[in-house]
Amino acid sequence: MKTSKLNADPNPNSRRLFVAGNWKMHHNAAETKAVLDELRTQVDEIQHLDLAVCVPYTSLAAAVAVLDGTRIAVGAQNVHWMVSGAFTGEVSTDMLKELGVRYVILGHSERRELFGETDMHINLRLHAALNAGLLPIVCVGETAKQRDTKLTRAVVSSQIGGCLAGLDAEQIERVTLAYEPVWAIGTGVTPSPEDAQGVHADIRQQLHRLFGDVAERVRIQYGGSVNSKTVAAMLEQRDIDGALVGNASLKVPTFRELLDKISP
């Protein structure tokens, strides 16, 4: 019988669970302050998780100010690969670091589908983020059509290879991967925990081939309609090390309910 990581004995080599909220284009600065003022008072006792909220660019300064001195880190939702230049509408790693941002989401399916980002773009962003000392969360996942045609593993493997090209073992240990099946994002439909575990296990095996034993220390989140009803069963799987949470992270009651489901 498999032992849940939530109840397992402490192990210096175990992967610490990591839950990050992706707020997408929700909450202005004032709304962000209000939500995080409430959230920060409710997570002090949650010591077994790493927590982050990835807010819109215009809310980053407010989020950093509110969460200063707390256990909740702040993340951005994208970053450009150049330090400066004629790149209208883009934000650099130095700009994020100046604000006190720690994490950055890269390669979300909405960036790929709506804004034409490719594995090459994500790879450039990834190297820039790592070189700047930011901690990337790199998203991969297949569409419904790709799943229906049995291409899940091929698609995810190709994305992993392209996005992580040129990294070494030291760098990959600072990367969090997030498996987010595109057909599950915002739909309320999720793969079974066992199916999600199968993809996560494949990802970890590929990391072993690419980077060696450090693969056992890389955290792989699940994302896609994560809520309080689905999160516990997902995180009981051996290779699922946390969650990238969308809608359920936007309001304190639903986010807290989700976090309570994975408390030991």
Q: Can you tell me about this structure?
A:
The protein has about 260 residues and is an alpha/beta fold. The chain has a single domain, classed as Alpha-Beta Barrel (TIM Barrel). The protein has 11 helices and 8 strands. It has helices at about 30-40, 60-65, 95-100, 110-115, 120-130, 145-150, 150-165, 170, 195-210, 230-235, 250-260, and strands spanning about 15-20, 50-55, 70-75, 105, 135-140, 175-180, 220-225, 240-245. It has an 8-stranded parallel barrel, surrounded by 4 helices. It is globular, with a radius of gyration of 17 Å. The model is unreliable at about 1-15 (pLDDT under 50).
Q: Which key terms come to mind for this protein?
A:
single chain; 264 residues; alpha/beta; TIM Barrel; eight-stranded parallel barrel; 11 helices; 39% helix; globular; disordered N terminus
Q: Compute the CA-based radius of gyration.
A: 17 Å
Domain module tally: 1
Q: CATH architecture, please?
A: Alpha-Beta Barrel
Helix content: 25-40%
Chain-averaged pLDDT = 93
Spell the H/E element sequence.
Answer: EHEHEHEHHEHHHEHEHEH
- Main beta-sheet strand count, sense and barrel state: 8 strands, parallel, barrel
Q: Which overall shape is indicated by the principal axes computed on the Cα atoms?
A: globular
